[in-house]
Design goal:
Elements lengths: L1 H6 L9 H24 L5 H27 L5 H23 L1 H11 L2 H27 L1 H22 L7 H13 L1
Helix pairs in contact: 2-7, 2-8, 4-6, 6-7
């Protein structure tokens, strides 16, 4: 996120040494935490890491662009930003769903299990609230704080998944990684 903020033309955001140190602690912690799983898991795939890196890069571009909008145009509301980011992404998502034929498979499955429509509505409402809150964090505190909070949430989810679905005892890498993540946050 910080790299993208420093690269955006016309923005070139500067970060303090403490912010860089915090980010590095979280990154190194996550690498250490997951490194043992990569060695022992029969389902480990480097493609998963590549997809994760792409997702983080896209999220950091989005957060930084939102901060640019709020900084350069303070009259912009969170709802306007949410609408625009959704409206721009929707055609790409719809095209992908149409081309993959997943839309028709999903429609047929939902028609056989009507409760899924309720689940979709509840998930959409929860996603809307989460997006509004995240955009509010970006508007009020800036993208580094919002990114650190989302990273903290993801780290907690990751750790909980290791605790709940543990395959092997925790190693020094797990504990060290967890400590570094906590220090970075």
């Amino acid at each position: 996120m910080m790299v993208m903020g420093a690269l955006i033309p016309g923005w070139r955001k500067k970060y303090s040494a403490e912010e860089y140190a915090s980010a590095m602690l979280v990154v190194v912690g996550l690498i250490l935490f997951t490194s043992d799983d990569a060695k022992t898991s029969p389902n480990f795939s480097a493609i998963g890491i590549l997809i994760s890196i792409c997702a983080v890069a896209m999220e950091s571009i989005l957060c930084n662009m939102q901060e640019v909008i709020f900084t350069t145009r303070p009259e912009t509301t969170q709802m306007e930003v949410l609408f625009c980011t959704t409206a721009v992404g929707l055609p790409f998502l719809f095209l992908q769903i149409l081309l993959s034929a997943e839309l028709f498979e999903a429609w047929n499955s939902c028609s056989q299990h009507l409760y899924v429509y309720g689940v979709i509505v509840l998930e959409a409402m929860a996603t809307f609230i989460a997006k509004v809150l995240l955009i509010s964090l970006v508007a009020i505190f800036g993208s580094p704080t919002a990114s650190m909070l989302t990273t903290a949430r993801k780290a907690v989810t990751f750790v909980l998944s290791f605790l709940i679905f543990t395959k092997a005892p925790w190693t020094e890498h797990h504990w060290t990684g967890l400590l570094l993540i906590a220090m970075g946050i």
